[in-house]
């Protein structure tokens, strides 16, 4: 996806073919929101490439038809939604498209939202309260947020979330059925200095995808 230098709302989209080892330009320029892809990277699902904005509105590029489509967020009052919620994570897991909607008032509370294949809107799949984890990990803090690394639904009665808790720098597997948790490991961010002022680096993680494509 390329930006138009004269207008950030205009994008040019190209598709790479591993069969021909070449790029194909799709139609003319597309009009999309200026914030598209600035917060979270695009996600491939359902033969389309998807982006989400800060109020859970979804925009996707249908690769077969080469068209841009939009699905509105779950709330009409955008200002109130933005004040009360944060879209924390967005990704494809097990063939489903999910996003994490965190409560700004209670950072340990969040919803797992799922998009259906007909694109009728986001549906609440799970409501999660991580407050009980503080009993096991007294120093656990959700103030700096967390990210969904993995989501497994191999057993319908016992789906599991793997979360990276930023401030505490721990990775935890949380069973939604039994509400039990296992600490997988601890990560460490590298502090750095900018003009003598100490900063802490944000965490970045990426899903491993085995591919023979040479891009």
TrEMBL record:
List, alphabetically, the InterPro entries matched.
Answer: At3g26010-like (IPR055290)
Name of the protein in its database record: F-box associated domain-containing protein
User: According to the entry, what is the taxonomic lineage of the organism?
Assistant: Eukaryota, Viridiplantae, Streptophyta, Embryophyta, Tracheophyta
């Amino acid at each position: 996806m390329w930006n138009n230098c004269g207008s950030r709302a205009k994008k040019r989209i190209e598709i790479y073919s591993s069969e021909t080892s070449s790029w194909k330009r799709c139609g003319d320029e597309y009009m999309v929101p200026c914030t598209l892809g600035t917060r979270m990277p695009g996600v491939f699902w359902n033969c389309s490439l998807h982006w989400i904005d800060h109020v859970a509105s979804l925009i996707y590029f249908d690769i077969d038809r080469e068209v841009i489509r939009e699905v509105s967020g779950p709330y009409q009052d955008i200002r109130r939604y933005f004040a009360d919620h944060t879209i924390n994570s967005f990704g494809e897991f097990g063939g489903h498209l999910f996003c994490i909607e965190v409560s700004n008032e209670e950072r340990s509370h969040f919803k797992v939202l799922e998009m259906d294949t007909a694109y009728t809107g986001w549906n609440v799949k799970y409501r999660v309260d991580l407050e009980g984890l503080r009993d096991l990990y007294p120093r656990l803090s959700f103030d700096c947020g967390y990210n969904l690394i993995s989501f497994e639904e191999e057993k319908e009665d016992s789906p599991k979330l793997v979360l990276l808790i930023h401030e505490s720098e721990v990775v935890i597997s949380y069973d939604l059925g039994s509400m039990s948790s296992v600490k997988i490991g601890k990560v460490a961010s590298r502090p750095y200095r900018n003009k003598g002022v100490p900063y802490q680096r944000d965490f970045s993680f990426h899903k491993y995808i085995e591919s023979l494509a040479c891009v």
